[in-house]
Amino acid sequence: MQPFSVLRQTRTPYGMVLEAKSGDMTLTFNGTAADPLNVDGVKGAFTVSSPTSRPLMQIAGMPAQAEIGMQMSGQFEHAGDVWSMMQGKGAVKDNPMTFSLMRLVEGAHGKPDHVTADIAFSQLDLNEFLSGQKKAAPGGADIPLSVDRAPDPLIDVRLSAKTLSYNALRFSGATFSASVMPGVVAVDALAFDYLGANMKASGKVEAAEKGAAHVTAAVAVSGADIEKLRRIAGLAPLPLQGQVDMQMTADATQKTLNSAVSAADVEAAVSMTKGSLDRKVIGLASADLRMLFNKPKGMTPVACFLGVVSAHAGVGQALPLRIRTGDGTLAANARFDLNRKWFDLIFSTQASTTGRFALDIPVQVSGSFGSPKVRPARWSADGRAMLAQTDRLNALPAGVRQFAMRNACYRPTGR
Fold first, then answer.
1. How far is CA 116 from CA 54, 99, 174, 181, 273, in A?
2. 260 CB neighbour count, 10 Å cutoff
C-alpha cells in the first residue's frame, strides 16, 4: 500500500496491491481507491482463480451444484452501489471466454440486486456444466426450467459462442439474450446454425404449479437441407431435394428443457420455393398409362411446397401437404410418431394438373422411418375428409399463417 501520507490527500486516489484468499479462491487487485477503508471509488486490474468456484457461490448465496473451475482477469471498478468488471478474459471449466461487461447494481433496502452481463465464448460445452462430469454421456444433459417468483438478483444477460455443445448436438454461431424477472424468464433472442440451417427463436418461461414452468416459443428456421435432416432422423432416401424454411410455435408445461421439447404442442408451416422432386413420384401418384412404355427419369423443379404440421408430444400430422411441379401437383396428408419413428403418408396428384392418360390413383407410404412400404391407398371417408381440411390453414397462429400465405401453394378455404 502507498504511505499513509497519500491517504490524507483526499483528491488523490490511493494506490494498493491486494491479494485475498478464501478456500481455493485467490483474488488479486492492482489499482487505486478514492475511499479505501470503504472499498469505494475503486479502479484497477484484477485476477480471480478458483478450481471449484464454491467460495464464489457462497458469496452469492447460491448452492454449488458442481465443481466449476474458473479463471478471470480484467478491469474492476466500484463506485457506490455499482460493481463492474470490464474488458476481461478467462475460462470457465476449460471454456475460453471474453467479456465486455459484468455489472452488479445493489438494490435498495428490501429490493433485489440487478446483474448485467455480456459474455462471449469461443467454445461452450453445456454437457460439462449440466452433468457435473468432464465427458457427459450422450443425452445425459438437461436444463431445469425453474423460475423464481421473487428472484434476487434480477438478470439481463447476453451470451454468444462460436461453437455450442448440448448432448450430442453441436451448434455454431450461437447467441442468446434473456432477462430474469419475477416469475418469468424472457428469452428475447436465441439464434444458432445447425447442419447449415439457421434457427432464430424467442419466447418466455413462466413459473407454473408444482415446480414446473410454462414455456412458449416462436421459432423460425431457414435453409434446412432435406438430405441432412433425413439422415439425422434416420429416414429412408427421399425423392425430394432442396432446402426448406419453417415457422412454428411451441407450448409446453414441464420441469426440464428436454421434457418440454418432447411434450410440446407444436403448430408449424414448412415451405420450399427452390428444390426438385423425382419425376417417378408424379408418375406413380398419377398412375399415368404412358409409364407402361416410358419410365419417367430425372428430377422436376418444385415450384412450391407447403406443409402444415401439428404435433403433441411427438405425435401429429402434416395436413395439408402440397407440392406443385411442372409435371403435376401433389396433395397429401401424413401422420407420424417421432417416438416410434413411424409414419403414414397418403398422396395423390390433382387431376387438373396431370395428363389425359393419368388415373390419379392415391398412393400410401407407411411404416418405420428407415423401411417404409409403398402400396395403392384405400381412399376411406376419413382419408378424404383429412385431405379436404384446407380450413386448417386459416386456423394457424398469426405468425405461422403469415409465413404460409407467402407460399404459392397456399390456398385458403373456399378457393
1. 22, 11, 19, 13, 42
2. 23
Adjacent-strand bridge partners of 189? 177
Residue 75 belongs to what H/E stretch?
A: strand 70-79
Task: Please name the residues in contact with 394: beta carbons below 8 A apart, sequence gap of 6 or more.
Answer: 401, 412, 413
Rounded to two decimals, the pTM is: 0.84
Higher pLDDT, 59 or 276: 276
Distance, in Å, from the CA atom of 361 to the CA atom of 377, rounded to the nearest integer, reads 8
H or E element: which one contains 282? helix 279-286
R_g (Cα) of the chain, nearest Å:
29
pLDDT (tens digit per residue) in 216-270: 999 999 999 999 999 988 888 888 999 999 999 999 999 999 999 999 999 999 9
Find the helix or strand (DSSP H, E) in which 160 lies: strand 154-166
Task: Please check whether residue 74 is in contact with residue 88, taking contact to mean a CB–CB distance below 8 angstroms.
Answer: yes
C-alpha cell at position 153: 438478483
Pairing state of beta strands 114-125 and 154-166? parallel
Mean pLDDT for 269-275 is 90
Q: What is the rounded average pLDDT of the residues 398-413?
A: 82
Amino acid at 411: R
The C-alpha cell that represents 270 in the structure block: 414448412
Which DSSP string do the residues of 332-396 spell out, in sequence order?
EEEEEETTTTEEEEEEEE-GGGS-TT-----EEEEEESSSEEEEE----HHHHHHHT-GGGGTTS
**CA distances to 102, 285, 360, 376 from 294, in Å:** 70, 15, 17, 20
Domain boundaries, the chain: 1-80, 214-415
Distance CA 250, CA 253 (A): 11
At residue 2, the pLDDT reads 84
| Helix, strand or coil, per DSSP, at residue 30 | strand
CA distances from 8 to 14, 30, 254 (A): 9, 20, 60
Residue 194's DSSP bridge partners are 197
What are the phi and psi torsion angles at 135 (to 5°)?
-125, 105
Residue 271 has pLDDT above 50, yes or no: yes
CA distance 20 to 55: 12
Residues 204-208 have a mean pLDDT of 96
**Range among 59-68, 374-383, 400-409 rated most confident:** 400-409
Whether residue 293 is predicted with pLDDT greater than 70 in this model: the reply is: no
